[in-house]
Amino acid sequence: MERLPFLKQLAMNYGHVSGSFDWDTTFHDLGMDSYDVVDFMLSVEETLGFAVEDDALLSLETMRDVESLIEQCMEEDNSEHA
Length: 82
Known about the structure:
This protein is mostly helical and 82 residues long. The chain has a single domain (3-80), classed as Non-ribosomal Peptide Synthetase Peptidyl Carrier Protein, Chain A. The chain has four helices and no strands.
């Protein structure tokens, strides 16, 4: 799965994507408040099958941050199942 189109589709569910969307797009650019971000990340977690620590959510600003967090969570999940 290509993640940027996946993240864009999720953001579109909130009605906030009107312009360009790339790895440097911020939640602020999308007009998302903290509740939207939490809900967005819950959708990411449910779709990809992992859980994010609440503290990690506080540091997310860009789609690149989300991608890094996804990678980190998936690596941790893989190492736990190895």
